User: What shape does this take?
Amino acid sequence: TNGRMPDGNVAFALRALPCGFVAFDSSSGFGDWKRGAKALVKYQEESAAQCCRFVNSEHFYTPKQLAILLRALQPNDCKARQTFFLEVRRCRRRAQLPWEDTPLAQLFATADDFAALKLKAVGARVRQRLYERGMSLADAFMAFDHNRDGVLSGAELYGGLKWLGVPLTPEEVRDVITFVDHDANGFIQQAELLDAFGVSSSYLLTDETSSTTLPSPTLRVEHAQAAALRPAALPRPPAS
Assistant: This one.
């Protein structure tokens, strides 16, 4: 019970973000309440810490931190998150880093944690199929790149995944493209594919995820058999 609010049971703590979100001081009853709901309080503390870091215009998050932040921000659409972050950062004396090259790219392209979980599952299936074929992700990119232009279109990704044995619907392929295509140009570069589906991806893998090592790139002629397929539901890349 707070002296200023006789019927209230709210407790507060003063925390320092640069010091690991440690509590410097707290109101009466805060410690008792914290001990009574330890697991819940720990998650709330972590969620609050990541939200404060986001407001503080920080760019880099571990996979666990990014998942917690995504869950906290999922009531807001992706565009609103991006607009808020960039507008706040513009007011600060901070290096204007290209957010496309940071974990924030995933936060601005993933509607909710369920969408991230779906893509994580796709990545696991892709890696398993590649392992069975003795291929690396670099091999897969070369095999999917039907016209050999160094990037993957939606049709090439759709056809390549079907050839690999990971058939997705056109809608699911669109979701993958939205998540992976950091610069939103309608094409997937090799680095973007490796970043999203690679075993060392900092965005999709958690500590519990298997880190099976895939073979090094050993592309052979028979690997390059994936054909581009374009269902009507797939978006066409922007005209040059």
